[in-house]
Amino acid sequence: MSNEDNEKVFFGSKEVSKKDKKLGVDNIFTKVNENYDLMNDLMSLGAHRLWKNHFVSTSNINENSVILDLAGGTGDISKIASKIISKQNVYLCDQNASMVESAKERALNEGFYNSMHFNVASAEELPFQDNFFDQVFISFGFRNFSDKPKALREIRRVIKSGGFLNILEFSKVQDQVFSKIYDFYSFNVIPKIGKIISNDSDSYKYLVESIRTHEDQENLRKMILDCGFDEANFENLFNGIVSIHKGKK
Questions:
Q1: Tens digits of per-residue pLDDT, 83-125?
Q2: Which of 5, 63, 80, 234 is the most exposed place for a label (fewest CB within 10 A)?
Q3: Is 5 annotated as a binding residue?
Q4: DSSP SS3 for 188
Q5: For residue 76, what are the contacts with CB-CB under 8 A and spacing of at least 6?
Q6: What EC identifiers does the entry list (predicted)?
Q7: Mind listing the domains of the chain with CATH numbers?
Q8: Are 234 and 243 in contact (CB under 8 A)?
């Protein structure tokens, strides 16, 4: 095992090995899978739907685009993109097999299965050839990667020259007063919602903690550039609760 593999990373508020983070994240998303979509609605008061629609609509994909919905969960981004892309050129990939099965079931039930390919794989080891995708989308999954720089380099490998990486992720709130209100809601309300809906407050406590230990806007922009992308910028939404980062290869 290399020294890089032995480096500690944040799993919530704890520092653990990259292997332990990967296993821990996989375990959490297996547990929350059944109520995942409902919890997203409750935790964000439905705002995540607006953010995701804006995320895709500002990406300039077209009917001929080949895209990867990475850490795709139950397929929110894939569903939106499949309304634009005319061919079977939407690829959903997630390291959690339970999530991918849920995405398949949802795609069948909601009519976008024929647009899709499904893969179970981690972002650090993608099962795709070089220069394959026009754009890669990551929606609220980047902070859960066990090795973010390695994942970014791997993502860059599979993007075509001139293509884009798009990351929608929780970020650093810009207003101090609003930040205090947001912290109170996150640490006191969200775990209680998880307890009521899923009988699982610990998983949602992790999700809140993982937001606070994730890179802020400028540090994530720098990381994208350091991993080989030629351009990187970001847009804040909702006072920085979330941000959209774009990297161009």
A1: 999 889 999 999 999 999 999 999 999 999 999 999 999 999 9
A2: 63
A3: no
A4: helix
A5: 48, 49, 52, 139
A6: 2.1.1.163, 2.1.1.201
A7: 3-175+203-248 (3.40.50.150)
A8: yes
- Judging by DSSP bridges, how do beta strands 67-70 and 133-139 pair with one another? parallel
Q: Is 98 annotated as a binding residue?
A: no
Mean per-residue pLDDT for 179-197?
Answer: 81
Q: Which of 39, 46, 52, 74 is nearest to 190 (CA)?
A: 39
Q: Cα(21)–Cα(27) distance, rounded to whole angstroms?
A: 10
Of 229, 83, 76, whose CA–CA distance to 161 is shortest?
229
Alpha helices (H) along 83-175: 97-110, 148-158
94 is in an annotated binding site: yes
Residue 142's pLDDT band (cuts 50, 70, 90): very high
Q: Which two tokens stand for residue 57?
A: 């609509």
Q: Is 138 left (phi over 0), alpha (psi -120 to 50) or beta?
A: beta
- Per DSSP, the three-state class of 2 is coil
Segment 203-229 mean pLDDT: 89
> At residue 176, what is the residue type?
Q
